[in-house]
Amino acid sequence: MLSGQTAPSPADATLLAILQSLDVAKKILVSESGGMRGKELKSRIKAVVQESPTGDAVQRAVQAMTAALMSAAVIPVVVAGGASG
After folding, report:
1. What torsion, rounded to 10 degrees, do the Cα atoms 19, 58, 11, 29 define?
2. What is the pTM of this model?
């Protein structure tokens, strides 16, 4: 599928979107990438995700979740730092 020889399913695109959004695709897809370098793999995943009706939505959802987790981790630190000063 990553090589373009078979069409990706919506499930494939969803999984690729999640892995790419979490920035772990290169590490997890070592054998599936067929020796593609990081930028090549990222570009291919982007193409697969863009062709899928689910891929873009999943990618946005993972990015939103990541932003929410970062906020949940940072805000208490900022508030605690402001309260001690």
Report:
1. -10
2. 0.70
